[in-house]
Amino acid sequence: MLTLPKTDLKVSNLCFGGNVFGWTADQEQSFALLDLLSEHGNNFIDSADVYSAWKEGNQGGESETVIGNWFKKSGKREQTVVATKVAMLETRKGLGAKNIALACEDSLRRLNTDYIDIYYAHSDDLETDLEETLSAFNELVTSGKVRYIAASNYTYERLELALKISKDNNFASYIALQNRYSLVAREPYESDGARSVQDFGISGLPYSTLGSGFLSGKYKEGQNVDSARAVAVGNNYANPENYALLSRVEEIAKRHSVSNTAVALEWLRNRPGVTVPIASGRTVEQLTALIQSVTLSSDEVNFLTGSN
Questions:
Q1: pTM of the model
Q2: Residue 58 in 3-state DSSP?
Q3: Are 173 and 141 a contacting pair, CB within 8 Å?
Q4: Which domains, ranges and CATH numbers included, belong to the chain?
Q5: Where residue 227 falls among pLDDT bands split at 50, 70, 90?
Q6: In Å, how far from its chain's centre is CA 34?
Q7: Mean pLDDT for the chain?
Q8: Alpha helices in the chain (DSSP H)
Q9: Is the pLDDT of residue 223 over 80?
Q10: Distance of CA 101 to the CA centre of its chain
Q11: pLDDT surpassing 80 at residue 185
């Protein structure tokens, strides 16, 4: 376990992404994933109110509901660090004070809990004054409904301003940044997000760390894969440069007799500005691959990075 900077939260070295709950994994499958995570000592779960509104028939909040039902069944709320987010659900959009308060109540109800460990601004809201947003978050912290607040999809400049406003007004401050980062999507995180994490002394909790599953190796060049993420992979990652990178990942994985995903996640843990990577899987087999342990040498990290 490690302690997140500026908090007393002790978390595992993997944060499991709950976007699959209620989307590609139904409740029974989701419970199996959560049970396995718990059995292996992984206590960190990430969700959002918008998960998974994009699925036909869903309205948002499905992921939180699954997690809340699991808490009720397992009795493991107190052993779990749960993060969720506000701003992107169409019916609870933005970071206005009223919306934040109402969205938090919705999330608490769905999660079957009276507090949220980390509550994120899911995306920056340029139409709402940052002081209004941070004042609303601060009220949630002082009331005990939220333990810590964090930012997702914020630039260095906006995060710097948010932290200054919190300091000047004695508000709760963002303790983490969650932006996109992986071996196949290194910018703008390496020039912006990592600098934010290092300069401000907060946690870096990157998402989309496996390139929508591309780094798992199941997407082979010239082959069609039946997957909910296949379109995203084809549009964003399926190119000669990334297939060459995938070959390097596979070479290291074979050397250590572990999965591609274990290697990709360990590479992230060795990168500046990364505290804990976020990753998800829809099956027990995929989760088992995620939580495999591997130690990479500096030469192997450089080989994957492209430094050698």
A1: 0.94
A2: coil
A3: no
A4: 2-178 (3.20.20.100)
A5: low
A6: 16
A7: 94
A8: 27-39, 62-74, 97-111, 130-143, 156-169, 194-200, 230-236, 240-256, 260-269, 284-290, 298-305
A9: no
A10: 22
A11: yes
